[in-house]
Design goal:
The chain has 6 helices and 4 strands. The protein has 123 residues and is α+β, with helices and mostly antiparallel strands. The protein has a 4-stranded antiparallel sheet, sandwiched between helices.
Amino acid sequence: MISQILLIFLAFSVSVVCSSRTLGPSPDNPLMKVYLVHVDFELYHGDCKQYQQLLKKVVHERSPKDALVYCYKEVVSGFAAKLTDEEAKKLIGEKGIYGVDEEEIYSMNVEPYSHRLAKDINN
């Protein structure tokens, strides 16, 4: 059951543009990355303020509100946050955290197959 939820969460997070903030390493701190944090819904109820309280335990020198990128409230329970590797590791030990995964950005080649085939043949 949990693996199905995590799979849905991953598929959903790949297909959704999280917010207007840029994702990936922060220009202010190249050590920061976006992490997807999977939480126990029974404990956190999809409440963004509770996620900020959780982030307050691991995020220092900036506001938890600034670290929070997006709150997932549909289909899965969790959030995306800009964290350092060290902060992400600290979250793993917190109560109600199922997983903390670094965001992966995928891109699709939407060029029609016949055009790609013609390029491959000509090269």
